[in-house]
Amino acid sequence: MQYKRTPEDRFENLAGYPFPANYCLVPEPDGGELRMHYLDEGPSDGELILCLHGQPTWSYLYRKMIPLFVDAGYRVVAPDFIGFGKSDKPTERADYTYARHVAWLQALLADLNLSNITLVCQDWGGLIGLRAAAELPERFARIVTANTGLPDAKGIEGEQVAKISAAMRAHYESLPVHQSPLEMGAAMMADSSGMRFLHWVKYCAETPVLRVSEVVKFSGGGVLADAQATAYDAPFPDDSYMSGARQFPSLVPIMPDNAAIPANRAAWQVLEQWDKPFFTAFSDSDPVTAGAHQRFQETVPGAKGQAHVTIEGVGHFLQEQAPDALASAVLKFMADNP
Fold it and tell me: 136 in helix, strand or coil?
């Protein structure tokens, strides 16, 4: 597997990111290894919080929350998924699959021997983290979901699988290639087909220039200073480093014939029996994941009776826009469920 490694000087003196780097090696299908970066802050014997980012961000997203968790006495591990941040970046989009992302995270958990984990996951951090928790439940003590989901084409069976999948592919092919997040977002909101997410898939896959800082600004990261924008863009010197960022939306199993559907359904079977503490902390202004908290609250036993929160006036990236509110909600949830 061919990969690139972002030069270290890209990460020098990033705004608000003083954390030392840690690395582990995870296997790749050709028999080699990839270097996966993670932050490891707080007391080594402290109770563990695992913070998982989504697309197209990296552990920089949690920079404001990590000190709050550490000050409360917790150990925090925040990895960069393969293809993101300081982790190695395979150059071919086909090298990235949902199953491989889950396996790479599980390899990190095994390498560090992490247990009694409180999972904090947003965006793809949920798609990957929830699968890992369902497949390795003995390692996890609590789960916090924020603006995420676990798509499994619930209720779509038989002939409907092929029919709906074909319609979605046809809709995808009919869409233009948008040139900016703003243009893409306007087209997405005007789309009444019920397949709005495909605009995002096509934009990330095919737009000529994909810039992470612009996506964070557009998707609810608030106003970014130039130094913060530089930090979000730091892992990607040019487009040859962005195969993972471009591929992630295409891997979301929104089409019912997606190869990940059986594994996600198996994960839901575990979550529907999950009696450990489970918490939702979604924002009120994220059109992508709006309403996804309801299934968690209604079907996960461990979610019953929890003081779930909705963080108001915040878009997709809660960690950037409302780090204090999200961190406070997580800490209260942990205190309420010792």
Answer: coil
